[in-house]
Specification:
Number of strands: 17
Distance between the termini: 39 Å
Shape: globular
Order of helices and strands: EEEHEHHEEEEEEHEHHEHHEHEEEE
Strand content: 25-35%
Low-confidence stretches: none
Helix content: 25-40%
Radius of gyration: 25 Å
Number of domains: 2
Length: 348
């Protein structure tokens, strides 16, 4: 399921400034909506606010520890959907909420933009959506101006039109609100305030979620847990990784019994994975599941990090994509170094 913004229209836009309590302690809210002007500006802004979300298939739902009605962003989003003309007043409340939870010195100040869209095609329905974005990064660019007797060049500072720091789109679906979110600037745990503290969202339990999380757990088990319990070569680990991603690529439905038999084979290794899976579920507070429909897009995205690479000192990288029996590991006592022997038919 993907959002189609082809015929989407940006109807309203409001921008505020949200600072940080530990640094500038500033907060500025607008008293009017932004004049979207002509169709060119309106179209460019619509593209800027929507392009990062056009290929996203990972969705979230709002939550709250005690009462979902206390989720601030969800509450005001529902009010805006009910009365789109209230975007300005409710956006101020959302901006104040962001300011209040910006309680870490690592959180950057920046503009907070709230947009209202119509005409988005989503899962068979035409829906409205609210976009919330925070721009923290500014770039310097050259402004070349042609005068009567020549050109002048000056330095200007602005928001990059091809880069978005943080954002979310809230879709008003027939069965409730659905959220997609990105955070490309802050990776440290203390800065995960955008999804966890501001939006308060959790991954939606759908086929994309189950596929991505199961693959992540399998990768962690192969690369981190197996070496702690067994004597295993990098080539063997690469083989397990290849078999894992291949299983997901070759099947539409996931069955855990078939997966562990095909990938791990050994009974002791299967038993170890079962225990690791339980620990992973407890640590991440989620259920991985043992049968579900496989999301092709989640497999494609996960495959990027399932690269089976053996790094040999600083001299060689060996990419292992197939049969483990075609690569052998040994030790040459005369040279005093380990080696790999690789069998192949053709050299390109």
């Amino acid at each position: 399921m993907r959002a189609d913004f082809t015929n989407a229209v940006l109807q309203r836009l409001v921008t505020h400034y949200v600072g940080n309590k530990h640094t500038d302690n500033s907060f500025f809210y607008s008293e009017k909506e932004i004049d979207l002007g002509g169709q060119e500006l309106k179209g460019q802004l619509c593209t800027y606010f929507s392009w990062p979300f056009r290929d996203i298939e990972e969705y979230y739902e709002f939550y709250h520890e005690s009462n979902i009605a206390l989720n601030t962003v969800k509450h005001f989003a529902e009010q805006i959907f009910e009365t789109p003309g209230s975007l300005l007043s409710h956006s101020v409340a959302i901006a104040k909420h962001l300011f209040e939870i910006s309680d870490s010195p690592n959180i950057k100040s920046g503009e907070l933009h709230l947009a209202y869209f119509t005409g988005i095609y989503m899962d068979g329905s035409i829906v409205d959506a609210i976009g919330i974005y925070k721009t923290e990064t500014r770039d310097v660019f050259f402004d070349v101006d042609k005068g009567f007797d020549g050109y002048s060049i000056s330095l200007q500072e602005g928001i990059p039109a091809d880069k978005m720091d943080k954002g979310c789109v809230i879709y008003d679906m027939p069965d409730g609100l659905l959220v997609s979110a990105i955070d490309k600037t802050n990776k440290r745990n203390e800065a995960q305030y955008w999804k966890d503290k501001f939006l308060k969202i959790i991954a939606r339990a759908d086929e994309y979620h189950y596929t991505a999380e199961y693959l992540a757990a399998a990768k962690d088990f192969i690369t981190k847990q197996i070496p702690q319990e067994y004597e295993v070569t990098k080539a063997q680990q690469a083989d397990y990784l290849n078999k894992s991603i291949t299983f997901f690529k070759n099947n539409d439905e996931f069955d855990e019994k078939a997966f562990v038999q095909e990938v791990f084979e050994d009974k002791e290794l299967i038993r170890s994975f079962s225990g690791y899976k339980r620990s992973y579920e407890q640590e991440h507070e989620m259920e991985l599941g043992d049968s579900f429909s496989i999301s092709g897009s989640a497999v494609k995205r996960s495959a990027r990090v399932f690269k089976s690479v053996i790094k040999l000192d600083k001299n060689f990288h060996v990419y292992v994509h197939g049969d483990r029996d075609l690569i052998e590991r040994g030790y040459d006592e005369a040279v005093g170094k380990h080696y790999y022997k690789i069998y192949f038919d053709n050299e390109a």
